[in-house]
Design a protein that fits this description.
Layout lengths: L13 H14 L9 E5 L5 H9 L4 E3 L22 H6 L13 E5 L9 H8 L4 E6 L2 H15 L6 H6 L1 H10 L6 H5 L8 H9 L7 E5 H6 L1 H12 L24 H22 L6
Parallel strand pairs: 1-3, 1-4, 2-3, 4-5
Helix pairs in contact: 9-12
Length: 286
Amino acid sequence: MKIIIRKIMPNWLKPITNEVLRKYRQMTWSNRFLPDFIIIGAQKSGTTSLYDYLSQHPQLRSSYMKEVHFFDGGLNPNVDNFKKGEAWYRSNFPLKQNTDNNQKAFEASPLYLFNPLAPQRISELVPEVRLIAVLRNPVERAISHYFHEKRKGFESLPIMQALKSEEERLKPIIEKQDYKNNSFIHHSYKSRGLYHEQLKRYLDYFPMSNILVVQSETLFTQPHETLQRVFQFVGVDTEFFINDLKPRNVGSNRTKIDPDVYKYLEDYFRPHNQELYKLIGENYDW
């Protein structure tokens, strides 16, 4: 009878080990990949699920953490990841010597789609990179975002008040281009659903052929077909079958929503959705 003894690292040793690994990755940054493609958003649209699904493909090598948050500067208002430079960014990816020639590296940071500075920054460091935007019905996305922030302790207002207060909250921040401000990140419920203007910013720096738009709802209702499109877009084996398709990062604190909230959001997003459909040549019936 074969007995397997699994050694568990003591908790006190984990921070030391992580720090050693971090320093090693930074020392070897020049031998590491830049991403072949990036999942740029949108937040609460299935980016975590897509990242985990793609990580199961043998030709795809994910970043060490899903959300590197380099081109948007990161979520900490007091720390700008972008100022850490290319060496820091590369340290988040695998060594070239540990990968086959046909493998491709990627990351997923959903704030990239929303942050106005990200498109130019990405184009300057990885001009040939491919970009994947996962777009969810902006009404449902905004509601999901609200409950996400409430769960994390960043929102205290009732949902309708939070939605109607957004412009007042964000106006001075946007005027100052303070894109690392907590309100810009955490209270942008409607603004993050203005997909047309966000994709247009990317089209100032990338051709449409470098951008794949994936409808979030289709990712979960037709996962294999959607993943085949993604595999073809990034240039890997399209016939590989992903077994674990369980949705990731699903919120659990959502409560019943008043119909007035839905009507308010549907009216708000209707003209913006029409502009999106014209841009991408596809109608999602949102």
